[in-house]
Design goal:
The protein is mainly α and 426 residues long. Among the domains are: 123 residues, no CATH class; 128 residues, no CATH class. The protein is globular. The protein contains 12 helices and no strands. The protein binds protoporphyrin IX containing FE. Protoporphyrin IX containing FE binds next to α6, α8, α9 and α10.
């Protein structure tokens, strides 16, 4: 297996799964099992393989080490992609052994991912370290590493919970929510926090404006995620009332820390990231509202989930992929201007679809066709982006990741020569 295949398979496969998950989520009114299937497909086959694939390309660059086995990497990406599909089929068709098989495969992929990371850091270091953007970045990198470690713990916890609950679910607790938030908040959000603290000063010429708030974000996120998961698992609504709003504050601090740097990102990445944080703000405010007053939960559950998964995670992926894919592939992204259609189409469809869901729940008419249409639009936008990524990789698949740092000017130093967009730091 050629190592450069791994990132395209993970990213394109993940985007395609997210696209199908949107179609499935749109069918919820026909059969509630479509919803559960969509959530499993989006999380296991959509988000996890994409995060694994990006790690496969980026971690060796920053750690100056080489993976021991690319074949194992290929296996773990394929296992992750297959796990959500198999789970979703099992849920939709009530085939318990498919559900179990999908959950077991996801756990195998997660364990292999962490095992590969563990092995990588036991390899000898080669070459000098990539230059620091500026001295203060060291502290941000330290917090980023703590977020990665926390993400690893929640990844395994979430995948074990997913497998165990296919055999038996305790009488107490809302275990489908424990599973979803362990993986989404504990793993995906922590991983995204780690990546932003590592890369934003490397992808832009800026510095952290609120460095003291970076560890505050970590401490609050660590406390709140644990509180939320324990509260959901034990039905302790008082603990959820503390954990939910604390989580919302932690994510607000993340937004405050990142906002000044997000504005300095190159176009498309900037728009994607800004939209991602906008949807996160709405999605998480709804979550905090559920924690304070549980009666909002059933009314806005799907809007909350879709704003967070297709809005926040979706736009984060679109934004980050627009930056990374050309650098991974060594070639400009094809059909660059398509984002002018894709971004508004996804954003509008999420709002309009949410409004239709609300009106349908209120019994103000039959909006099923409209709900399905908005989800189909999101699916087409994500699928077209997956195609763009695939074609970009096909254009020149074997170029190495460039690690030229963003040049910083010292006082009195002449301005640097303009770099091509592809020669910025990964
Ligand atoms: C302050 C943070 C959050 C709180 C307090 C919260 C709370 C909740 C609650 C109470 C529900 C169930 C609603 C009901 O039916 O009663 C829910 C569902 C869900 N949430 Fe969150 N949430 C938060 C953040 C997030 C984030 C960041 C994501 C994704 C990135 C997310 C993804 C989901 C998903 C996918 C579901 C639906 C799960 C399913 O139907 O199986 N949540 N959330």
């Amino acid at each position: 297996m050629k190592p450069w295949w791994i990132a395209p398979i993970g990213i394109v496969g993940g985007l395609a799964s997210l696209s199908v998950a949107s179609l499935a989520a749109g069918l919820t009114l026909r059969d509630g099992r479509w919803w559960e299937a969509a959530v499993h497909l989006a999380v296991l086959s959509g988000l996890l393989p994409m995060i694994f694939a990006v790690n496969h390309r980026i971690v060796p660059v920053f750690s100056r080490r080489k993976w021991r086995s690319d074949s194992l990497w290929f296996l773990l990406i394929v296992a992750a992609l297959a796990s959500g599909v198999i789970s979703a089929i099992g849920i939709k068709e009530r085939e318990l052994w498919f559900e179990r098989g999908g959950a077991a495969l996801a756990l195998v992929a997660g364990v292999l991912f962490l095992q590969q990371l563990g092995q990588l850091f036991r390899q000898p270091v080669s070459g000098p370290p990539p230059p620091m953007p500026y001295d203060g970045q060291r502290d941000a990198d330290r917090v980023a590493i703590m977020f990665s470690r926390m993400a690893g713990l929640y990844l395994i916890a979430g995948l074990v919970i997913g497998l165990v609950t296919t055999f038996s679910t305790p009488d107490r607790g809302r275990w489908e929510l424990v599973w979803a938030h362990t993986l989404l908040l504990g793993f995906v959000v922590s991983m995204a926090s780690s990546v932003t603290y590592h890369v934003l000063t490397r992808w832009t010429p800026g510095r952290w404006r609120t460095p003291r708030l970076i560890p505050v974000h970590f401490v609050l996120a660590a406390i709140a995620t644990l509180a939320m998961v324990v509260a959901l698992a034990t039905d302790q609504s008082w603990l959820f009332k503390i954990g939910g709003p604390t989580q919302a504050i932690a994510l607000l601090i993340w937004g405050i820390n990142c906002a000044p740097l997000l504005l300095q990102l190159p176009s498309v990445t900037r728009e994607g990231m800004m939209l991602a944080f906008g949807f996160l703000a709405i999605g998480v405010s709804l979550g905090a509202a559920f924690a304070i007053d549980a009666h909002f939960g059933p009314i806005y559950r799907q809007v909350h989930a879709e704003f967070n998964v297709f809005g926040w995670a979706g736009f984060l992926i679109l934004g980050a992929a627009s930056y990374l894919v050309p650098r991974f592939a060594g070639s400009q992204m094809v059909w660059t201007n398509l984002y002018r259609l894709q971004f508004p189409a996804i954003a509008l469809s999420l709002f309009v679809g949410g409004a239709f869901r609300r009106m349908q729940n209120d019994g103000r008419g039959d909006y099923q066709t409209w709900i399905e249409l908005t989800h189909a639009i999101i699916a087409v936008a994500l699928a077209s982006f997956a195609l763009q990524v695939a074609l970009t990789f096909r254009a020149r698949p074997s170029a190495p990741v460039l690690l030229t740092p963003t040049p910083r000017r010292q006082p009195g130093q002449a301005p640097p020569k303009p770099q091509s967009q592809l020669q910025r730091a990964v």
